[in-house]
Amino acid sequence: MARKLEGKVALVTGSSQGIGQGIAIRLAEEGAKVVINYRSNPQGAEATLEKVQAAGGQCHMAEGFCNIERGYSIGADLGLIDDVCRLISQSIDHFGHLDILVNNAGIEKHAPFWEVTERDYEAVMNVNIKGVFFATQSMVKHLIATKRTGKIINISSVHEDLPFPNFTAYCVSKGGLKMLTRNLSVELGPLGITINNVAPGAIETPINTKLLNDPTKLNALLQNIPLNRLGQPGDVASMVAFLASDEASYITGTTFFVDGGLLWSYHEQ
């Protein structure tokens, strides 16, 4: 059976662990060649690269080796525009073109609103909005220059709609991502480029280690999730793989919540 993304090249930002790693592996399973991006975790990126290579399949495993390069790793800070532009251009130089951009990299800072520093505010905005804006711009320029269509998928959050006290800058960034996606769907549609958001809820990743080890907080959260479990990176990756495929060719400007029902059920304890 033909795989959905055979012959496609995808870049997944922030893919050294967690949701980004899960997305990179799933896209490889669907046949894509994948550019893995990291900022400060080269070991994690190497682990992702190995998993992407294994997931890509269609190699000469009977002879004990694989001669099809399925993945490539690039270090870049998505909060720095020069790094963003280099990431896109280096990805294109390596694989020849890009078809899919997954803007997954993101950060959050915890503080009451009245204690948020300019430095922390800018750190969140630089990665979560500015980096996405200019990575997408570079991708679109490439698609226009090569007369190609393409798919852009942003990893947003339930907090593009759901308030999250003490994470105001993060919520603002995700709300901005929601409007960026809507606006670009109108601008990019005539070019054959689709753009959508995937908005995870509570996903079991390394960033949530403290929560996972605190039964009281974990149980309180689970009471707000109708499906009564945390999501897995694969739950998010499945939606990304669909949106990256031709099956989603008539979908653009939309947010897809992958949250087990959290958004419509959440209430403060």
Automatic annotation (TrEMBL):
Gene3D superfamilies registered for this protein in UniProt: NAD(P)-binding Rossmann-like Domain (3.40.50.720)
Pfam families, per the entry: adh_short_C2
Assigned keywords, A-Z: Oxidoreductase
The keyword Oxidoreductase is annotated on this UniProt entry: yes
E.C. designation(s): 1.1.1.47
PROSITE patterns linked to this entry: ADH_SHORT (PS00061)
GO MF: glucose 1-dehydrogenase [NAD(P)+] activity
Transmembrane segments: none
Entry similarity comment: Belongs to the short-chain dehydrogenases/reductases (SDR) family.
Protein name: Short-chain dehydrogenase/reductase SDR
Source organism per UniProt: Gloeomargarita lithophora Alchichica-D10
